[in-house]
Amino acid sequence: MSLLEVNDLKIKYRTSEEDVHAVNDVSFSIGEQDNYGLVGESGCGKSTIAKTILGMLDDNGEIAAGSVKFKHRELADLSESEWQDIRWEEISYIPQSAMDSLDPVMTVGAQIRQAIHKHRDTTKAEADERVAEVFEIVGLDPARTSDYPHEFSGGMRQRVTIAMALVLDPDLIIADEPTTGLDVIVQDKIIDKLLEIQDEVDSSMLLITHDVGVVAETCDEVSVLYGGKVMEQGATYDVFMHPTNPYTMGLQNAFPVVDEFDEQAISIPGSLPELTEEPTGCVFRNRCPFATEECEDGHPPLTANGGQLSACYHTDKADEMREAAAEPETWGLEGGDDRETSHEPGDVILETDGLEKWFKQTQSFIDDMRGAEPDYVKAVNGVDLTVRQGEILGVAGESGCGKSTLGEVIAALQPRTGGDIYIDGTSVDDLLAESTKKFRSQVQFIFQDPFDSLNPRQRVKAAVAEPLKIQGYDQETINRRVRETVSDVGLNPPEKYLDQLPAQLSGGERQRVAIAQALVLQPKLLICDEPASMLDVSLKANILNILREMADKRDIGIVYISHDLASLTQIANRLAVMYLGRVVEIGDTRDVVQNPRHPYAASLLAASPQTDPSVNRQRVLLPGEPPNPVNLPGGCNFAPRCPKASEECRQAEPKRSAFEDGGHEAACYFPVEDVETELLAQYARNRGQAKVQSAKEESIEESVEGE
Amino acid sequence: MTFRRFLIKRTAIAAILTLVAVSVIFATLRMLPSDPFSGLVASGALTPSQVEELRALYGLDEPIWVQYLKYIQNLFTFQFGLSLTQQRPVSEIIGPALLNTMVLLLPALITTAIVSSLAGMYAGWNRGSWFEQFSIITTTFFRATPIFVTGIFLLIIFSYGLGWFPAFGMRSSMANPEGLAATYLSVDFLKHYILPFTATVLFYSGDFLMLARNSVVERKGSEFLKLHRAKGLSEMEQLGRAGRNSLLPLVTYFALRTGMLFQGVITLEVVFAWPGIGRALVQAILNQDYPTVQAAVFIMALAVIVMNLTADIAYARLDPTVEAGDV
Questions:
Q1: Residue A110: closest CA among chain B residues belongs to which residue?
Q2: Is the separation of the CB atoms in A617 and A217 below 8 Å?
Q3: Which of A331, A358, A374 delimits the end of a domain?
Q4: Could you say which of A100, A103, A119 has the minimum Cβ distance to residue B228?
Q5: With an 8 Å Cβ cutoff, are A119 and B241 in contact?
Q6: In chain A, which residue's Cα lies nearest the Cα of B5?
Q7: What is the least distance, in Å, from the CA of B230 to any CA of chain A?
């Protein structure tokens, strides 16, 4: 019996100008105790569907047609007070941004209790007991129920919201991007928890995400959405092993995977269709390389093909399409064949020597007077790096590891507190003393957020020309260089874009303008801080390709900072992994990814989800969280969480050259040989022990109480 | 930092501020070019030797630092000395006037803080409703109109026009009550009280309404309210949470306003002939009655500092995310 049935659902948003048809004829059903995935890029309608199932559609949204049946009851006609009874009691919700989803002025325990009291007639003691129970289930310390949300880290807050979703044993849990915004190791632990909970409780789950990897690893069935339409639907295994729809193929190809090196990421050219009218043809036809005239005749119906349903007129040629889709040329991209043969990196362009950035902690006035040594947060602590011409150095690490600070210090956007930086053999201090302008023309920075980093009132032409004007070029050179650069970053023809304002551009186009702005001065060194992390998968690949091409063609050295290992392995020649201000491992990307030696780097790499549903990956259950950067323990920073740590590790911090093999270095006394047995199995075992331990303690307590 | 350390630190800062404030008052008044006696000499009422005697009587012939120390010592024991013009202790002049002002303004402020804040929250929650627009226009109108204009209109309509309320003073000229209870708890007092009370409530309502409305509007789209809604909370319960999260600016503003009440509202007191601190202060300044001015200014400064301290403490208590050290 199916728990939730969505039939031919159409949802419209009314805006002041025209209606937006966000969801068109979507049908799917979720059985009991099922994990169902809705996957797609932003604007595909997945969140709108989730809101509809909770009855929380925005005020200007309405169900234009179709039905949503939950346990055979039509949800579309419910009144607000009927909704209030169903919410949480039967359908609960795990929100996307755990960081601001909890009421900041209410203890987490009280927030969960509130949900209980709202729906059940229980005493406070009973509610407290239940809160402690769910805390236990999600792996939080039940003693912390009276803490406020800000006292928890991001991953722990997400656990609180999961605990909250479980508290009434609902029949359906809707998880809206539950792991987006979390670091990859934390994400892995949360996914593991969700799956474990699925086994224990009998709720169904509707998982909404853009992350193909997360869906492939967690869901039994999946719908791939695009432009408010279901493109492909069926068992996750079938859909991602043998996709029959060109969009699924494109999405999967665009999604970077950690251990695919040097393969040019395949992006889907073009942008989302305007949804101001009901689709008259296939919604994907303007971006689809296999589109024919037939595709203009209305959106194709979902037809059975193999184990799954696919909305495409050409499903009979699915095998051929799959093969063709793996080739970048199919998508109108230039071939990436010359990549392997690309010339050797040239001279060293950037060198840092023991670079340090310590932030002083404020201390009390009295300690200041006594001359006490203040505490420091060592955001960047003794980092040695080199970048050569035409080389991309990837810097990876979790949030808070100091990678962004490193980028800003190298670009002299923040002063350093120790060590040296050399650009092309000259110290940064000398360069800055000579001329700040000249330094800025050599070192450029690309920021994360293309929506905030462009001036909204400046047209593309003016934005890209501005650096040249500051450097004092003549008008003719400026015009020529702007045109060239805009075209180089793939905004073709340039005339079409030069007079547009940022608001008229899509996110991917804006980021390309930002890149053009950085490249127009022909810098020697480019520092990119997460330039693709705000973009959808299909656009992300495009940005990566542009950067790679620029490094090759223009001999620029690039420092590419990201938490996303998969995009790093695709783009970087060499990879550095940071943990708490130190580079713990560095080497050729291939060496680092295939044979990581530092236990932290190895764990990080192993935690990336796989888009291939046939791979059975062992989860990384790395215990604890990075320690407080103010009072770090002596010895190796990672020792407290490392299963291999010995006395030696706690005594003295290993040098980065503790392990050395060619250019591959790792700061570890006991380099990892086999990730599975030495680390992952160990983590799992330790956790198992911890569980047995707590179970034992419980049984002892119970027997004591029994007496 | 623990809450206790925070409390000690803030209190110490408040004490230092108070000391600075009274020193400034002392220095300012001593720097004024004239004193009340020189005027008497000029008019021929006193001979210079008599002035010397008088100066010695008030301790004005002592070195400046001795005067300062005595001044500080007296202030902190709440001995404000004798009025120069009325020949009675300053506390007897200021005390009743201050009480009259507080009896009028404090209940008015509390009333408007509660009512207008709740109305503002409701308005913010129902954005675009007629209630929101109506309440904003009305309260902004009264906020923009000077309080004495509102007062005069109230008098014209309800006192001279309809004759419902007396127009003048705090009690009728026939009444001569003894003791606090008889003064402030009589029907006669209530009749005199209603109009100035109403004018004050109307005047302050706009601030609280807009503050409450804006912070609820800010909270309205927030993720945590979405989660509260998903939990099945009713509309009013959600508004309750939004309101709880909007309390900070309201409490801060309330505390600061309360501190400023101690100055009285001179225009209001004049229009309604209310014998409050504002009028007492202006009279004292006109008469160059320095001990009275000193004392009144000291009380105002102290009130503002104390209410600021209260606001800080309320902040740390209301918002757990405010690290006590940040404030």
A1: B228
A2: yes
A3: A331
A4: A103
A5: no
A6: A364
A7: 6
Q: Are A160 and A149 in contact (CB under 8 A)?
A: yes
Distance CA A470, CA B75 (A): 62
What are the residue ranges spanned by the domains of chain B?
A: 3-76, 94-326
Give me the amino acid identity at A80. E
Cα dihedral: A116, A121, A126, A132 (round 10): -10
Helix (H) or strand (E) holding B180: helix B179-184
Q: Dig out the tokens for A292 from the structure.
A: 């024919």
Chain A hits for B320, CB-CB cut-off 8 Å, are 104-105, 148, 150
- Say whether A104 and B226 touch across the interface (CB within 8 A): no
Compare all CA atoms of chain A with the CA of B238 and give the residue at the minimum distance. A103
Q: Count Cβ atoms within 10 A of the Cβ of residue A31 and give its class: 0-12 exposed, 13-18 middle, 19 or more buried.
A: middle
What domain range is A209 assigned to? 2-90+170-331
- pLDDT at residue B43, rounded to an integer: 66
Which range (A95-109, A369-383, A515-529, B126-140) has the least confidence? A369-383
Give me A470's structure tokens: 């500051």
Report CB contact under 8 Å: B224, A101.
yes
- The Cα–Cα gap between A269 and B319 comes to 48
- Binned at pLDDT 50, 70 and 90, residue A699 comes out as very low
> Measured between alpha carbons, how far is A155 from A448 in angstroms, rounded to an integer?
22
pLDDT band (50, 70, 90) for residue A363: low
pLDDT of B77: 82
Helix (H) or strand (E) holding A528: strand A525-529
What string of DSSP letters covers A553-600? HH--EEEEEES-HHHHHHH-SEEEEEETTEEEEEEEHHHHHHS--SHH
3-class SS string, A451-480: CCCCCCCCCHHHHHHHHHHHHCCCHHHHHH
Of A592, A625, A654, the last residue of a domain is A592
Residue range A467-486: mean pLDDT, rounded: 89
3-state helix, strand, coil split of chain B in percent (to 5) is 75, 0, 25
Cα(B34)–Cα(B30) distance, integer angstroms: 9
Tell me the shortest Cα–Cα distance from A195 to chain B, in angstroms: 22
Q: CA torsion sign, A99 to A103 to A104 to A108? A: negative
H/E stretch holding B249 reads helix B247-261
**Structure tokens belonging to residue B206:** 């706009």
3-state secondary structure of B46: coil
Residue B17's identity, in one-letter code, is L
| Residue A411 belongs to domain with CATH number | 3.40.50.300
Instruction: Looking at the structure, tell me whether residues A445 and A393 fall in a common domain.
Output: yes
Which of the residue ranges A141-145, B155-159, B170-174 would you say has the lowest mean pLDDT? B170-174
Q: Is the CATH number 1.10.3720.10 carried by domain B94-326?
A: yes
Buried b (16+ CB within 10 A) or exposed e, A389-404: bbbbbbbbbbebbbbb
ipTM summary value: 0.77
Query: Which residues in chain A are closer than 8 Å to B246, comparing Cβ atoms?
Result: none
Q: Is the pLDDT of residue B10 over 70?
A: yes
User: Does the beta-carbon distance from A114 to B234 stay under 8 Å?
Assistant: no
Whether A277 contacts A21, CB under 8 Å: yes
Q: Which of B230, B231, B318 sits opposite A114 (nearest CB)?
A: B231
* pLDDT reading at B68 higher than 70: yes
- The two tokens of residue A158 are 């997400």
The dihedral of CA A349, A355, A360, A361: what is its sign? positive
Distances (CA, A) of B285 to A621, B96, B290, B291, B302: 76, 18, 7, 10, 19
Nearest to A118 among B232, B241, B319 (CB): B232
- Residue A602 domain-assigned (yes or no): no
Side chain identity at A526, as an amino acid letter?
Answer: L
Q: What is the mean pLDDT of residues B227-249?
A: 90
